[in-house]
Task: structure prediction
Amino acid sequence: MTALPDATSAAPPPGPPAVAEPTPRQREDLVHADPLLDCLIEVCRLHGQSATRASLSAGLPLVGGRLTLSLAERAAARAGMACKLQRCALEDIESAVLPAILLLRGNKACVLLGWDEGAERAQVLLPESGQGAVSFTRAELAERYTGLTLFVRPHFRFDERTPPVRQEPTRHWFWSAVFEQRFVYRDVLWAALLINVFALVFPLFAMNVYDRVVPNHAIETLWALAIGVALVIGADLLMRTLRGRFIDEASARIDVRISAALMEQVLGLRMEHRPESVGSLAANLRSFEQVRDFIASSTVTALIDLPFALLFLALIAWISPWLLLPVLLAFGGVLLLGLVLQGRLHALAEQTYRASAMRNATLVESLTGLETIKTQAAESVIQSRWERANQYLAGLNLRMRRLSASALHGTASVQQFVTVVIIVAGVYLIGERELTMGGLIACTMLASRALAPAGQIVGLLMQYQGARTALESLNQIMSQPVERPAGAHYVQRKEFTGEIEFRDVRFAYPHRQDQALDGVSFKIAAGDRVALIGRVGSGKSTIQKLILGLYRPDQGAVLLDGIDVRQLDPADIRRNVAYVSQDVTLFYGSLRDNITLGMPYADDSALLAAAEVAGLMEFVNRHPLGFDMMVGERGESLSGGQRQAVGIARAVLHNAPVLLLDEPTSAMDFSSEAHVNTKISRFAQGKTVVLVTHRTSLLSLVNRVIVVDAGKVVADGPRDRILEALSAGKIARAA
Result:
């Protein structure tokens, strides 16, 4: 490592000493220790699967910036590997399954390569030793070993020479998570069976008491039956408690799994396929709660209990077949009512869903643009949109409630009518000596219990239609293309030199007919500093977004170090390309959190160096909380120039070989801009710099200028020659 150069050429002002600027090759200082991730990378390499830290860990919810055992499977899957954690002794590890990752004490890990001939010395790879094997005695390794081994093997894959005979069904993102809890739901079914069997006890108890105990005054029998029923009540309470607990636990696991999958999908969406409205997307994602509530609420219990209604119907038929007829007719009528309401409920649920998404989109857009609404006196326009959406949604909700209420009330009336019919018919049957008084009471109780699940059909259907509509919307989100599709193979590169090339690139943004770039071609050598200048909307920022891989060219190719960016893992690209956008977005949290947004494990020395380059130190030193000051949502408590300085600090902290600057100082005063200009000029030594600017003061950073107009390159050459041509009017239509 080379020593850091001084932050300033003059003597530092009173206070904290000047912070040195990071050198281009000092990126490893910012790489924190992550033994498990490093070992996983080495195992992938030994199996012929290339992988980097960024490619395996990007987007995973790392804990303290480190890979955890619970995330190891997801990280390994990105390299086409399967892993299994197992507790076993060293002597029980078969040589056929090596290499394997051994978990060591002190949150460390190593890769076990094998044993020598005497099996007394182990050959291992330590994260600190890189790819150099280290020898340990069995006793030394056993002392460090925790007893846990992570076995990692590549998935077997068929190639194109062996196409499938029939298309295998793909795992659905939602139903696969539910299917994983099948053993829990199996236990729920067993509990439901026992609960419904226990429910048979109460009608039989009543029947025997009225038919045998009361006429014979059999007090001993009464107490025996009562004690038995009391035991059943206790067992029933236990089964109901366990069933509710099982359902809650399964629902919680499904919730965690699916919520993670949804967020991973949203963060991984290709930019050209992202929804146009953030508020609508948020409403769509929040609709998952309807699906979760449907599978977690008492409706699941009702669905499970519905098939067991046959038990009650069978017992009614055993007591009196004639009394079974009204129950069957009512049961069929309720089911028919549910089927009739299906279509109407689905249409209303879909309209409600869309209206709710539209209202939420209006709300989010209004909150994010509240200052603009006030300054433009547009409150009445937004209020009008909001009230129209609310009125329409309220009307839909009213119609759904009316439909549901009328169906529920009708179902309740049918159940009451069935009870009356059973009692009337039972009296006649008693008169004909075909039924006893206890049998009539038992049939009345059984009929109520048999119709209870059917009586909830309408409520079930209402929730089902809402959940179905929400699931269809979520399916659309989950079906959108992502940047890193499953099974994709990339060229893995840990480091880039910074050579950039565009070859006849044509690109148009989604939902636009005009070309943002039309046949753009140029080449930037590693370490070169280039400025892109031109009119507003000429395509300068688009070029930088294509370099970052945020978008893909419609035609042509963008190459980084001679490799088409479509062959590179997006995580590797963004690990090696630092970017300062013209509109820096901050998040709620402290200033430290926002600077270290992509590198939360960065130490204080790196943070101070980045803040010094960005010109933040004077502002930070004046504030009583320093880097712990809260910046508010979207950085509302900071000025535009300060937000840009935070964006510059982020890029400096990454210390990547390629630096993209898009109007980095447009909101700064001349003094701050001069400071940043000087610091970046030193910091960017040896880096490839692509600068987009309309300020000639920043052109001192570059040695080459590319003029872009209407999506085409109209001039390209040394800075002084291009600026001279522009001033002389020799380059037409250039800014």
